[in-house]
Specification:
Largest sheet of chain B: 4 strands, mixed
Structural class of chain A: mainly alpha
Number of domains of chain B: 1
Order of helices and strands of chain A: HHHHHHH
Distance between the termini of chain A: 87 Å
Oligomer: heterodimer
Structural class of chain B: mainly alpha
Shape of chain A: rod-shaped
Largest interface: A-B, 14 and 10 residues
Number of helices of chain A: 7
Helix content of chain B: 55-70%
Shape of chain B: elongated
Distance between the termini of chain B: 12 Å
Strand content of chain B: 5-15%
Order of helices and strands of chain B: HHHEHEEEHHHHHH
Number of strands of chain A: 0
Helix content of chain A: over 70%
Radius of gyration of chain B: 22 Å
Largest sheet of chain A: none
Number of helices of chain B: 10
Chain lengths: ~180, ~300
């Protein structure tokens, strides 16, 4: 009788541990999804600023067609991206294009002084901050999920919970990737 | 050299250890009480724990509204201070926390605090003095520190610590009073005299020890909040500069109650003459140095 009770107690304990670990994996996986949705929300906010920004710059520098085209193309690409890698690539392209647009604005003092442009620029830099915090939060979540997926004992339950390691959100930034060229 | 992750796990581990020591202390006190006053007094143990629970958990549950009233903080909305809310929203995205209530305390001394029983009932408050002097990145550091308290559930941790310390205090107080009025109940007990002296010492010293442990836990939670703030902002410089502003400013919040002294980012009590062991916050210079070490890492 006693041994049966002990065995039952152990089985219940094991079941509880299993449920706890299983739920932890699922919870972490969901929080990665939520964090990714947050990135998309902030990218959308940034994309929504672009038509106005382009209009304002066009008013002063209509002939900078190349720059405008790059921004509009980047925006179009961003709206169709779905996977993490695609979204990150589109995000990078957009960041680049916007940098180009702001660089163009540097050459037009009237544009830089206009109230419209200043408020848009302000809003854009606020949104950039939010985008970068959303990326960071996503990567923090991926980091904790991946640690749990790869460490014992949760690694045993990961296939059962259909949870696997997730991809980090890495923005390709040509400016920072380029190896410094040394000239003599 | 330690980055914010190692600091976070070290402080979490130390909090856990301190809470475990406090739990062990409760058992030692119960043992001492029963040895000294006799088994017949066993009934006071649940009474002491119950009293401590009632007195602490009511204020824990209603901490958001209670602390607002005790500090005279006034809740504000986004249109009152859009710039402050913009910085708060950034840190919320970085931390994944829901929007807390935001409040302002009319006081020229720069300071801030956070409370609330869970992230859904959190309050963060700033003095007008702090909002006036802080630069944007400093303010971001302060907000991140306060939201770290919310994320780390420090209101819960300090409620647990206060309950344990309270139970120990009530228990020793009961036994001491009983001895004062009636002496030991079962004089026929065949207890070892050494054991009796040990029990008496435990009953005298335990309340002090529990206050020391409670303060130590509070200090660890402050260090943890500093480290978590760096996780949120990835910018130790902002918080470091903010702490330097707080350290350089000698004015102290005119608070209405000492009971809420431990919740501020810079303690209004720990001025010079208080012993390090009883302080609720680590020395501000030490916190600045830790953040500086993190800056040199990045």
């Amino acid at each position: 009788m006693k041994t049966i009770l002990v065995v039952v107690a152990l089985l219940v304990l094991l079941a509880l541990i299993f449920v706890a670990q299983y739920n932890r994996l699922v919870r972490l996986n969901v929080s990665v999804d939520e964090a990714f949705a947050q990135i998309e929300v902030q990218l959308k906010r940034r994309a929504d600023l672009i038509p106005n920004l382009v209009e304002v710059v066009k008013g002063y520098a209509a002939h900078e067609k190349d720059t405008f085209e790059k921004v509009v193309n980047a925006r179009a690409k961003a709206t169709t991206a779905i996977t993490v890698a695609d979204v990150a690539a589109a995000d990078g392209a957009m960041t680049q294009a916007l940098r180009g647009l702001l660089a163009v604005a540097e050459g037009y003092p009237d544009l830089k002084a206009s109230a419209n442009f200043l408020s848009l620029q302000d809003e854009l830099s606020g949104t950039e901050n939010k985008v970068s915090f959303a990326r960071q939060f996503y990567n923090d979540n991926v980091r904790s999920l991946n640690t749990v997926v790869k460490t014992i004992p949760t690694s045993f339950f990961a296939p059962l919970a259909k949870v696997s390691a997730r991809e980090f959100y890495e923005v390709e930034d040509p400016a920072s990737r380029q190896a410094p060229t040394v000239k003599f | 050299m330690s980055n914010f992750r190692t600091l976070q796990s070290a402080n979490k581990r130390k909090t856990f250890l301190l809470l475990a020591v406090m739990g062990a202390l409760v058992w030692v006190v119960v043992f001492a009480a029963l040895t000294y006053a006799g088994q017949s007094t066993a009934g006071i143990v649940p009474i002491a724990v119950g009293l401590a629970l009632i007195s602490v958990w009511g204020s824990y549950y209603a901490s958001d509204s209670l602390v607002l009233r005790m500090t005279g903080a006034r809740q504000i909305v986004e249109s009152d201070n859009p710039k402050l809310f913009a910085v708060i929203q950034e840190v919320l995205i970085a931390s994944g926390l829901p929007m807390p209530k935001v409040a302002v305390v009319e006081d020229s001394a720069p300071n801030a605090f956070a409370t609330g029983r869970n992230p859904e009932h959190a309050v963060i408050a700033f003095t007008t003095g702090l909002l006036d002097v802080m630069e944007r990145d400093e303010l971001q550091g302060v907000i991140a520190h306060e939201l770290s308290h919310v994320a780390n559930r420090d209101t819960l941790v300090s409620a647990v610590a206060a309950t344990t310390a309270g139970a120990i205090a009530i228990l020793s107080d009961f036994i001491m009073r009983m001895m004062w009025f009636g002496g030991r109940r079962d004089r026929e007990s065949n207890s070892n005299p050494l054991l009796l002296i040990f029990s008496l010492l435990v009953l005298i010293l335990a309340p002090i020890a529990s206050v020391l442990l409670k303060s130590a836990i509070s200090r660890k939670r402050e260090s943890l909040a500093d480290a978590t703030a760096v996780q949120f902002t990835r910018n130790p410089t902002g918080l470091r500069k903010a702490l330097e502003v707080l350290a350089a400013d000698s004015t102290v919040v005119q608070q209405r109650s000492n009971a809420v002294a431990h919740i501020w980012i810079e303690s209004p009590l720990d001025g010079g003459n208080i012993s390090r062991l009883f302080a609720t916050h680590p020395p501000i210079q030490e916190r600045i140095e830790t953040l500086r070490a993190m800056e040199s890492l990045s």
